[in-house]
Write the structure tokens for this entry.
Amino acid sequence: MSSFFLTTPIYYASGEPHLGHAYTTILADVLARYRRRAGEDVLFLTGTDEHGQKIQEAAAAQGVTPLELCDLMAGRFEEAWRDLGISHDRFIRTTEAEHIGVVTALLERLRDNGHIYEAEYAGWYSVGQERYFTEKEIGPDRVDPIAGGPVQRIREKNYFFRMSHFQDRLIRHIEDNPEWIVPATRRNEVLGFLNQPLADLSISRPRARIHWGIPLPWDADQVTYVWVDALTNYVTASGAIDPAAPGPTRGFGDLRPSRWPADVHLMGKDILTTHAVYWPTLLMGADLPLPRKILAHGWWVVGDTKMSKSLGNVVDPLDLREQFGTDAVRWYLMREMPTGQDASYTPERFLTRYDELGNILGNLVHRALSMVVRYRGGTVPDAPSHDLAAETEAALDAYRQGLEGYRLHAGFAAAMDLARTANGFVEAREPWALARAPERADELDRTLATLVRTLAVLAGMFEPVAPVKARELATRLGLADVPRFAELDGLEIAGLHVTVGSPLFPRVEAR
Ligand code: ME8
């Protein structure tokens, strides 16, 4: 069985989960569900990033210890993911003992390999992004170039990782593997960044300033830079490193059989540099293989403004879920944002996408099942069901290409188009007219069987994005479960007992 290991960022345990976090996590969930349906052995990893100045300050502001804050917030994220139907296999927290062990081993490995040195450092630090920016990046206004937040001037002793040493190797890797960073615009951005000489990476902070972090194994007065700590979560969860391994290689010389390297790291474009520059060079420094793919998706804005706490326009996916259901939120996010590009949330667009579910898919389900009940007593007739075979095949092809080529919006558009085509087929066949002409009973049988088969295919196509409704649809079709793709061809539908039920996507009042 082939395997697939995919990751989301681990989110800062200092803020509430919002629509942006939900987007990446649902994107990962859809891919995980799709791969499982295709028969792959999936490891889907998500979690929380719990060390660093940002968490330390948030906890202090709330009058709790950092760990108390992290316990609370990790719970909040887990709860949100449960409510949004996320099927992750592992939720990692960077305060776990095993992770701390792996980070410690990684640091020692880098040092043993001669890639670490000590130096005095002066620079502009953004607590919001937990990283330094150059004079050029912060511009004359001296703000962090990603979120526009404040930066502070810091001068202190740090340990450095010789990132510059790996610049050429990284550039070559990106050039030799054109699909390694997707989409191409992001790849070009990273190559542009690497046009300048790459600076070394400060990997520690004095404990006197930040106490909430993993101590350096060789200097307890310094704690590990939170990005080095956080990125390492992907390796911890893979199981490759045994932090308790004896001997000088610290578990790196003799990797455990594991899920490393990851098949894809998913993230927003805000943290592309850390994933496409810091992370691969750290892995090179520790002699570990690189992840197979890095996908940096676009940014959700609200209307035409940034989503931000201070503007009070943060969209809570759980509020939307309460009104429209989990699957509607998932559908909207996956269908509305062309994977990789930015998108704008508006309540109007949300409703348009919701209506599409009801008017096209929901409508097809309702009318097809009602006709099986009305004309055939609810039992699917034994008849050839291939009248939409070519259309179904084409839709499945486009769907697979979309989901495997990281163009999910296009894959799901193909699924919805198949439902649209089936509605057109109902109009063209006019089953109600066939039902009035007893000599055309065969034609009616065939029409109904075709519709039921198409619905079974649609249940499979929609399951990754709309798992609740897809299962409900399978139940109404009289199937024990949503069929896997490999089962669709030979699926026996004759004799199934269908039920109509209430609308799958009811009209929502009080808009
Ligand atoms: O950066 N649109 O965590 P974070 C789209 N802890 N995606 C968005 C978004 C938006 N408006 N807002 C957030 C961190 N995201 C680090 C990561 S990983 C080793 C450490 C999503 O809580 C998107 O995936 O700030 C983005 O990259 C991530 O949340 C940032 O989450």
Summary: The CA atoms of residues 22 and 486 lie 30 Å apart.
